[in-house]
């Protein structure tokens, strides 16, 4: 398998619309991982957020629709808090792909779920496939069990406003803010600032003051178009030894301004975007080719096998060779 044939590996974790091009309707699949004694309130809030997003996006003639799926280790009914059951699909039906973002539910059952090797191994493979994972509350415990040396996307909130409460109320508010921020990052990317702000105002108006930077001003259309061009250039050239400064020069922007505008428009830093592009290709090559690790590193702009090994250890707590053996075995190769 050649590197050129692996472009599809990049599209699983982020898809950017071409500037000023009317796309065909797109379905974004969002999943939430549930377990026994997970939070029913989180499940309801996510449903409300993405139902509102679909209504607002349709009214604004956006060509994106969200589909929310509930997942559990075996599928079927899962008993949430307050003894309320939710019907779920089994993890095997998704095979670590097929959705854009995964939320990991809050709830007292997270500790028991963190000891279930089936859930932990599946979550580890999801993270290795560069799918955005957003743990909520106690769900961080489960995420850490699967990816001990990795970090999910930052879910910190600004000080003040809705975040300043005490005790159980503060803990509940923190989970709501984590959930809202994770959803807003996705909504901003897909349907724009105005629609994302409308969703927050409709579903959780008390959270608006907690996200001044996230819901604040965005780059103008020309700057946003240039950022999208640069993102495409980074993806197309990720197998070369390129830098963020190179990408900024491609669109005639200063490095500092480019990094700031890129984070606002895309939701991640240019460095993280480039690393994810490279890592997606590396994972596919390790699984589906016989190329040595050193050669894979050189093919994907990682400079050397030693550097690639360090990245793997940091992200997945395994070596590239261990990852290759495990994923090829699971894929039956």
Automatic annotation (TrEMBL):
Q: Does the keyword Transmembrane helix apply?
A: no
Every copy of the HTH araC/xylS-type domain together lies at 228-326
Which GO MF terms does the UniProt record name? DNA-binding transcription factor activity; sequence-specific DNA binding
* InterPro entries (UniProt xref): AraC_XylS_family_regulators, Class_I_gatase-like, Homeodomain-like_sf, HTH_AraC, HTH_AraC-typ_CS
Coiled-coil zones: none
PANTHER family reported for this sequence: HTH-TYPE TRANSCRIPTIONAL ACTIVATOR RHAS-RELATED (PTHR46796)
Question: What protein is this chain from?
Answer: Helix-turn-helix domain-containing protein
Record lineage:
Bacteria, Pseudomonadati, Pseudomonadota, Betaproteobacteria, Burkholderiales
